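We now fix the convention by which a protein and its fold are recorded. Here is one such record, which you should read through line by line:

>
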Amino acid sequence: EEQLAESGGGLVQAGGSLRLSCTASGFVADFDDYAMGWFRQTSGKEREGVARITSRGDATSYVNPVRGRFTVSRDNSKNTVYLQMNSLKPDDTAMYYCAVLQPCSLQVKNANYWGQGTQVTASS
């Protein structure tokens, strides 16, 4: 069974940093066949894309609110994708999810195999 497991969330003060991890297991194809995305959702709002990375990690993209503060990376030998979040703001508070992107476009409709999410809270 295909699974994604996020970890690394927590409570930090505004301006702090966190690194999220997402580890894949049970996939038939190799992990480096999949583009990956990070999404977030707050209560009462739609899930939104945050960052994406190509299957081999040679290209990344970010939404404007996080560009310059967040960095997405991956280690295909560990079946893991990361999201380094720096200079966190209260507006970044959300449940963060990773997903397989098919195709490689940061839209919810292209996301498959959601993980359970990890909560990030940045306090002011």
In short: The chain has a mean pLDDT of 96. The CA atoms of residues 23 and 56 lie 15 Å apart. The longest strand covers residues 18-25.
